[in-house]
Amino acid sequence: MSLKYAENLEGTMQSLDIMPLSIDLLSQFYINTIKGRGDNPLKSIKRTLLQNIENDQAKTFHFLFSGYRGCGKTTELNYLTQEIQDKIMVINFSVYEELDPITFNHTDLYLVLMEKLLDLAETKGLRIDDAYLEKLKLWTEYESIRDIITLGDSKEGEVSVGGEASMGIPYFSKIFAKIKATAKTSTSHKKEITTKIELKLTELIENCNTLISTIKQKLWVTGLKDMLIIIEDMDKLDLPKAQDLFYNYSTFLTRIQTSTIFTFPISLMYHTKFNVIKNNFDLSFELPTIKVFNRDGSPNEEGRKILSNIVESRMSLDLFEEDVLESFLVKSGGCIRDL
Questions:
Q1: Residue 159 scores a pLDDT above 80
Q2: CA 13 to chain centre
Q3: How far apart are CA 270 and CA 263, in angstroms?
Q4: pLDDT in the model for residue 317
Q5: At the N or C end, where does the chain have fewer CB atoms within 10 A?
Q6: CA angle in degrees (0–180, nearest 5) for 51-53-59
Q7: At residue 126, what are phi and psi to the nearest 5 degrees?
Q8: Could you give the residue ranges of the DSSP H alpha helices within the chain?
Q9: HSE of 42 in the Cβ direction (CA atoms, 13 Å)?
Q10: CB of 228 closer than 8 Å to CB of 84
Q11: What are the CB-based long-range contacts (under 8 Å, 24+) for 48-51?
């Protein structure tokens, strides 16, 4: 995404984009919105993570992070990443980009996470012990796992599970990417994959957590003292799917042995089962929208000024006729995407 400051009306379409700000664009367009929201949940998360480093990673935290769609959650999570990335390795992925959100389940989470961890190890040039790779190789050689690795292959395109093991990290990364891709493209294959992964899920989770621990140890010497996983777009799952995942399978989500932020549907925060869900996680936070009105109905000048600053960072306010921008600010309801 590339944004430009617009000085004329023709340039406004290039200056505006409803997508969240990437880390590369934060320095150019990010506006601190916290005073207009009235609360700063990301500050609490950041403080918790950094204090944990001071305590030598004494605890693993699993956070729920919610907010109305378009209120700026991803941008704020990217800002958090920028703030901590010199001390904490951050792995961020979207369930919408990686998987089929309609059929997404807890087994998918570990398939994607394994792929991301293996990619990280390869990118950083980390040497993973042969004993671990052999253990991972044994997992791929279970008959049920072999079946899903070759699922949907033509005879010429079949993956030789045993023959390429010497390739190490790149090979296993390719295996998990292939399973994920097969699950994403076929509903019938997805059901079979889920059923067969379930049989060996405990070992998969164990392999995942061993890899997390190994990578964290390897990165320690580079100055990165912990790892944070951010799972985006889980808040966009439909309510029945989200309820099933967070209520019935929360114990699987929280078995990830490093601090993790799960984006969470705000509708579930007002569900009768939320208290049960909340108790299975360490902390839950909601990112408020930017306030355009006070509780007494009077204009919230701080919130409106912040929204105006967001617009002004992208285009000249001289392009607006009198009172037009103010009307836009009010009609947005404080939701940045709507604005």
A1: no
A2: 28
A3: 15
A4: 93
A5: N
A6: 85
A7: -85, 135
A8: 12-15, 23-29, 34-37, 41-54, 73-84, 95-98, 106-123, 130-140, 143-149, 169-185, 187-199, 201-220, 239-243, 250-253, 266-269, 274-279, 301-312, 324-332
A9: 22
A10: yes
A11: 48/283, 49/84, 49/88, 49/226, 49/228, 49/259, 50/84, 50/87
Q: How far is CA 179 from the centre of its chain?
A: 20
SS3 57: coil
Q: How far is CA 19 from CA 16, 70, 308, in A?
A: 9, 9, 18
Strand order in the sheet with 259-263: 88-94, 226-232, 259-263, 62-66, 283-286
- How far is the first Cα of the chain from the last one, in angstroms, to the nearest whole number? 18
Residue type, 229: I
The token duo for 208 is: 């995942």
Yes or no: say if 272 and 252 are a contact pair by the CB < 8 Å rule.
no
CB 76 within 8 Å of CB 211? no
Q: What is the pLDDT of residue 207?
A: 97
Contact 105, 245 (CB under 8 A): yes
- pLDDT at residue 157 is higher than 70: no
Residues 6+ apart with CB under 8 A from 301: none
Region of 67 please: left (phi>0), alpha (psi -120 to 50) or beta: left
The whole-angstrom separation of Cα 337 and Cα 57 is 36
Rounded to whole angstroms, the Cα distance separating 254 from 97 reads 22
Query: How far apart are the C-alpha atoms of 73 and 129, rounded to whole Å?
Result: 38
Q: How many CB atoms lie within 10 A of CB 209?
A: 17
Would you state the torsion angle of the CA atoms of residues 180, 182, 186, 187, taken in this order, to the nearest 10 degrees?
Answer: -40
- With left for phi above 0 and alpha for psi between -120 and 50, is residue 253 left, alpha or beta? alpha
Question: 292 pLDDT exceeds 90?
Answer: yes
Neighbours of 275 (CB within 10 A): 8
* Non-local CB neighbours of 147 within 8 Å, separated by 6+ positions: 192, 196
